[in-house]
Amino acid sequence: MSIRLGDIAPNFKAHTTQGDFDFHQWIGDAWAVLFSHPKDFTPVCTTELGRVARLREEFAKRNTKVLGLSIDTLGEHKAWTPDIEAFAGAKVDYPIAADSDLVVAKLYDMLPAAAQEGKRTAADNATVRSVFVIGPDKKVKASLVYPMSVGRNFDEILRLIDGLQLNAQQNLATPANWSPGEEAIIPASVSEEDARRLYPQGYRSFKPYLRFVQPAGGRRG
Predict the structure, then answer these.
(1) 40 is catalytic
(2) CA 173 to centroid of chain Cα atoms
(3) pLDDT digits (tens, 9 = 90+) for 72-107
(4) Predicted model pTM
(5) β-strand partners of 36
(6) Which residue of the set 22, 101, 137, 155 is catalytic?
(7) What superfamily does domain 171-213 belong to in CATH?
(8) Domain locations in the chain?
(9) Is residue 45 annotated as part of the catalytic site, yes or no?
């Protein structure tokens, strides 16, 4: 099935390097990132998993849990982990789920339902290169798909989470190239009367439909 923004993220039983759990229960009241890989011991994926390990504190600041997933077994994940840690210079302290039976890849529409288990190459699983950002309400807030040849930018994914959390907390949108601390956009659905009430500190209007305001401070998450 196709996964659209706003859909409830499909639930599944995860068999991971940190034990088995129910995906939705594991998320709890946090945000979550599910990011997938076509195969273990692949070069681009090794750098990506390592980058996430180095960003552990940044995800924690945002009340965000991370779950990696790869089309291989738990045994292969555990054998691969020392390589990732050696490259990153950081411990992989987030779970990596096994999906050698392709259940999650099919559930999240990363592989066609007709895909078969067995000896599969990374090229066979080339479309298992997705990122799903999921909110505490278990709804999909964002999704990205990358080719195997291009490493994912997890600093951008953190910025994406910042924007999503700003919208959830303050009902603000973000302009192109926005970074935390910069002005945000008042949605066009907010009337001028409501904007004056909601933003007594003032805001600037470029056009009636394009208004900028400094977000209120406060903790992410």
Answers:
(1) no
(2) 18
(3) 999 999 999 999 999 999 999 999 999 999 999 999
(4) 0.93
(5) 69
(6) 137
(7) Antioxidant, Horf6; Chain A, domain2 (3.30.1020.10)
(8) 13-152, 171-213
(9) yes
